[in-house]
Amino acid sequence: MKKAIGLLGGTFDPIHIGHLRPAIHVLERLELAEVRLLPNYIPPHRATPDSAPAHRLAMVKLAAAQTPGLTVDDRELRRDRPSYTIETLIELRREFPRVPLCFLMGMDSLCSLDRWHRWQELLDHAHLVVSHRPGWMPEFNPTIEALYQAHGTRDSEQLHRKPAGCIYLIDNPQLDISSTRIRECIRAGNNPQYLLPDPVADYIRDKGLYNGPVL
Ligand SMILES: Nc1ncnc2c1ncn2[C@@H]1O[C@H](COP(=O)(O)OP(=O)(O)OP(=O)(O)O)[C@@H](O)[C@H]1O
Ligand SMILES: O=C(O)c1ccc[n+]([C@@H]2O[C@H](COP(=O)([O-])O)[C@@H](O)[C@H]2O)c1
């Protein structure tokens, strides 16, 4: 079987170290072929992002350019409608019929997975690799608990033996960073250095995103 592909979907408004360190950790620990960063167009379950899709994509590209193994997949931005993960996974599965696909997410995303569009079908097309996130204990509601009982594994080899169907909680270094906090930091006129890659911070400053000063 070909090497597994990692997928990290997000609004990335903006992309930050809390996305990138877990992505690199998973890439290396699970020996993935790559981790594709998939910026969404219209996030299904949240308010419209502050910055336009083109800005969010540009920042994701700047972040990925610095790191071997991280690539950018802009397919959701080419669909002019809410970015439902199930549609993305079905499309990718058609392109890679037998390759293991690992959809990466933070613990916050797993805890609310039962509110995703056609969530029962997600594991037919991909594994879920879940990073711990400060403030989010793996305390599942009964539906997610049942899903985890049926699909959870502690054996990472399973992710390579099967193309889809496992939930794997990965023990990653935890970083208490969010895009919300970064937007607030910039809005308050504070310095976001070391929370996100320098080229992304420069881009935000140049474009005056999040009401920061345009230089
Ligand atoms: N610090 C973090 N540690 C682990 N996973 C994270 C972290 N930040 C984001 N993620 C995960 O990355 C994915 C994309 O996150 P998203 O782009 O919404 O970032 P965010 O920081 O949660 O944004 P916001 O604060 O705007 O809600 C989600 O699956 C989320 O759980
Ligand atoms: O498909 C859904 O219904 C769905 C609901 C919520 C989130 N998602 C996806 O989960 C990823 C993280 O979302 P977010 O809102 O935390 O940036 C991103 O790829 C979203 O498109 C998908």
User: For the largest beta sheet, what order do the strands appear in spatially?
Assistant: 3-2-1-4-5-6
Task: Tell me the Rg in angstroms.
Answer: 17 Å
Distance between the termini: 50 Å
Shape: globular
Taken as a percent bin, the fraction of beta residues is: 5-15%
SSE succession: EHEHEHEHHEHHEHH
Q: Report the helical percentage.
A: 25-40%
Low-confidence stretches: none
Family: Belongs to the NadD family.
Function: Catalyzes the reversible adenylation of nicotinate mononucleotide (NaMN) to nicotinic acid adenine dinucleotide (NaAD).
Enzyme class: transferase
Protein name: Probable nicotinate-nucleotide adenylyltransferase
Any overview of this molecule?
- It is an enzyme of class 2 (transferase).
- Catalyzes the reversible adenylation of nicotinate mononucleotide (NaMN) to nicotinic acid adenine dinucleotide (NaAD).
- Keywords: ATP-binding, NAD, Nucleotide-binding, Nucleotidyltransferase, Pyridine nucleotide biosynthesis, Transferase.
- Residues 7-184 form the Cytidyltransferase-like domain.
- It catalyses: nicotinate beta-D-ribonucleotide + ATP + H(+) = deamido-NAD(+) + diphosphate.
- This protein is an alpha/beta fold and 215 residues long.
- The chain is built from 9 helices and 6 strands.
- It has helices spanning 17-29, 53-65, 85-95, 107-111, 122-125, 142-151, 158-161, 179-187, 198-207; strands at 5-10, 34-39, 70-72, 101-106, 127-131, 167-170.
- It has a 6-stranded parallel sheet, with helices on both faces.
- Strand 1 (5-10), helix 1 and strand 2 (34-39) form a beta-alpha-beta unit.
- Helix 2 (53-65) runs antiparallel to helix 9 (198-207).
- The longest helix has 13 residues, at 17-29.
- It is globular and about 45 Å long.
- The termini are far apart.
- The model has no long low-confidence stretch (mean pLDDT 95).
- It binds adenosine-5'-triphosphate (ATP) and nicotinate mononucleotide.
- Nicotinate mononucleotide (NCN) binds at residues 9-11, 38, 40, 43-46, 83-86, 109, 116-117.
